[in-house]
Amino acid sequence: MNIKVSGVSDIDQIVHLDKIGVDYIGLHFEADVSGLVLKNIIPSALNQLSLDLKKVGLFSNASMQDVFFMIDTYKLDAVQFCGEETPEYCAVISANTEVIKTLYFDDGLSDKLNDSLAAFDEVCDYYCFDLRNTENIENESVFMYWQAIMNSAFEKPFFLGGGLIRPIDASLIHTFRHPDFFGVDLNQHFEKKPGTKDTALILSFMRAITQIDN
């Protein structure tokens, strides 16, 4: 199972996450949260690192010019679109790099899952299922969304996003079954404060997942 950690905004943490075996990191370039990355991560310093993990740029309704600029500046391995990007928009970007498209259950996705995905099948490499509003989310709601995904017949590798994965889910993730389940995206539930990840909690989660897989 692949582990993606989104919202990283410190080079030292990137190095640490790489060392403990994280597969992907997400760097926020969304307008409302991009300041931490732009302030704390100097592109030249990041690009000099020898990393095994992949760098993913997170965008929401950005111009194509901005996306291509960040891909080149930060040597991104993939981009993740978290806004209202159209299939046509994704098609242009995917001709140049891997694309992850985020789809939100808060928008009624569970009622139209297969139809919503069909439009993006040819222009995205991965999906990420998530929630916009993660406050007061209950176990029953998370499992309902999990079930909606497991009952769907799409064929595209996907991540379970931050709103659908919490530290307590390490002991339950083995119950999730889908042939294209590619990884988990550890987000706001795995940080000490915005931009500062709780690496001890992430490592604990990863170890629990490994034990289950074995």
Write the layout of secondary structure elements.
Elements: E1 2-6, H1 11-19, E2 24-28, H2 35-40, H3 43-47, E3 54-59, H4 64-73, E4 78-81, H5 87-94, E5 98-104, H6 113-118, E6 126-130, H7 139-150, E7 158-160, E8 181-186, E9 191-193, E10 196-197, H8 199-213
Parallel strand pairs: 1-2, 1-8, 2-3, 3-4, 4-5, 5-6, 6-7, 7-8
Antiparallel strand pairs: 9-10
Shape: globular
CATH class label: Alpha Beta
Number of helices: 8
User: Could you name the CATH topology?
Assistant: TIM Barrel
Weakly predicted, low-confidence segments: none
How many separate structural domains? 1
Going across the major beta sheet, what is the strand order?
1-2-3-4-5-6-7-8
CATH architecture, by name, is Alpha-Beta Barrel
SSE order: EHEHHEHEHEHEHEEEEH
Helix content: 25-40%
Describe the largest sheet. Answer: 8 strands, parallel, barrel
- Based on DSSP secondary structure assignment, what is the total number of beta strands? 10
Taking all Cα atoms into account, the compactness measure Rg is 16 Å
